[in-house]
Amino acid sequence: MTGFGRRIAPKLPAGVVSPAVTLDGRESGSDPVPEVPIAKRILLGDPLASGDADDHLLRKRMALPIFASDALSSVAYAPQELLMILLIGGTAFLAFSPWIAAAVVVLLVVVVLSYRQLIKAYPSGGGDYEVARTNLGELPGVVVASALLVDYILTVAVSVASGVDNIISALPLLNSWRVELAVGFVVLIVIVNLRGVREASRAFALPTYIFIGSVGVMVIVGVIRWLLGDPPVATSAAYSVQAEDLSQAAVILLILRAFSSGCSALTGVEAVSNGVPAFRRPKAKNAQKTLTAMGLVAILLFSGLTLIALVSGVHYAENPCHLIGFDCTSPQPSLMAQVASATFGMNSIPFFIIQAATACVLLLAANTAFNGFPLLGAVLARDGYAPKSLNTRGDRLVFSNGMIVLGIAAIVVLIASRANLSTLIQLYIIGVFVSFSIGQVGMVRHWRRELREMNTLPAEARTQNSARFTRREIRTGLVINSLGAALTASVFLIVTVTKFTHGAWLVFLAIPLLSLLMVGISRYYRDVEHEIAYDDDTRFGASGDVALIMVGKLQKPVVKAIDYALAARHDKTIALHVAVSKESAQELQREWQEHRMPVPLVIVESPYRAYAQPVTQFITAYREKHGPAVVTVYLPQYIVGHWWESLLHNRRARRLAQQLMLVHGVTITLVPWLLDSSELIYGRRSRPLPGQERAGRSID
Q1: Which residues pair with 483 in a beta bridge?
Q2: What pLDDT is stored for residue 5 in this prediction?
Q3: How distant, in Å, are the alpha carbons of 9, 30, 77, 268, 567 from that of 5?
Q4: Minimum mean pLDDT among 74-88, 192-206, 577-591, 670-684: which range?
Q5: 385-389, 536-540, 608-612, range with the lowest pLDDT
Q6: Domains and CATH numbers, the chain
Q7: Do the Cβ atoms of 370 and 273 come closer than 8 Å?
Q8: Percent of the chain having pLDDT more than 70?
Q9: Is 133 in contact with 114 (CB distance < 8 Å)?
Q10: Is the pTM of the predicted complex or chain greater than 0.70?
Q11: How many angstroms from the chain centroid is the CA of residue 83?
């Protein structure tokens, strides 16, 4: 025989583990999916259980479009920005473009190799932030984190603005809707990402691979036509350029500025190192392979697109009115659109495929930030440098709060810049090279420390490979990251000099401010932890247990609160009414006696219509008379179904709770009463009368 209400688990054979059982006797795996509002379910889907997280990790072929779309899409605007800056000096300056493009490719190779080393050494997903914080200290780590967060915001803004640019190049009538289109696409990308990593990868994989394939085919066709003596010719090749008179120093600065603009092809490389936790096992190796594939594809597309743009004679000016013969009242076609029309013909099917794929991949390049920003935000929250809400997973096992913050910030930037790509690109890549440079310096220090530890190991340990890395791996990493640190630091100086007066000063202002904010958050959390830490000086001296039920009128919510208080079996239960008029107090007292309520009613007067102060004074007086009792205040509260209903109630319970929380020794219990309209949210009404549900009687 078993006791009433108990459940005895059956005996299982040896080696068989019993499933977890919840308090009500159900197996933990049989829990029903929690109810969610219909609108949220349609947009985001049903909630996912925490145990399903491993099922949503990414394979390499799905991780490539998720993490590499930013780096791959940059080939759509990096050659355009490079040629645009050179054209300021005239068409003769385009002769420098092959050498500048070659320098960008060399830098890209070094950075990809450097980040392969970083992934090997720090596979936890912190990326440059973790490297800098571990090897260089708190301040460099915070600066790197701030730079990355700023860069992720600008990645979304630049990618979306560039995608809208390509849409307008194919459909010029949409030019007046530029900002609205950009904001709408950001909202759409946020919604898709909130549905989860696996769903996002499915949505973004096809456009990314179509972009790679279509641009690759266009480059191959253009090169073949060039080799056969029939090179494609861009529509802008016939336009001459109104060049500026430049001094020798200005020429050097112009070349350096073109190089810094071309370096936008490197954006997004760091995203893979920040997103290692999202890969399937073995995480580090899969991330390294994805990074290598991304680097190879980006190099081939960037080089090929730059070559075809030069062969076809694309002239893309910073100011379209400087193109002699061009109607500058019309939007200037993007470099990608000009190359596609020159290769396949304007308004041809391949032209529209390339434009559609380019627009899609540019818009989806923002998705790289929507993976990197939330992951970095979660790491920062875990380390105490960001609000802890950023480390909370949503219904779909993604860091939804970080995604929403990123979306709002990107929308603000797009509206402020009117979604103008030329304006946004000046703010871009500063943050990237701040993190590149500091991260690579941190990796150099990491390898030097590993080498010192290797030298201190006994000979037997070194021969048995008991260290984390072999001596060869350490030396290889040291060489690669030293080269990476030297090159990225040099490029950072070039980018700073050439872009500072063109708007990049805003980034240099934002990074320190964000760093100070993060340090302030860390200090706040540290102080709170110190304040609430337990110590042996704590004394347990409270005696007595009193329940105060706040009563306005004798209504069902108040009766429900009384029932809860009686069920809790406090030492003493009192109903307390704050009287702002004698008439209301007399009416309540009459009803209380008429209905024979089971708890005494105490009325305190409040001639100045305050509520919290009379309650506080009552508690103080009670304690002076009866000793230091613990007081539980029960506050009935309405739960409504329409947003406008909250405006029609005075929400006195919430305000009173906030004030009484400041009183020592007082705890607050909110007793919800669901109005009929709440059925819209919860799908039910909270309408059992006090005691009926516990007694086993149900109500319709």
Answers
A1: none
A2: 35
A3: 13, 20, 69, 59, 20
A4: 192-206
A5: 536-540
A6: 42-525 (1.20.1740.10), 545-682 (3.40.50)
A7: no
A8: 80
A9: no
A10: no
A11: 33
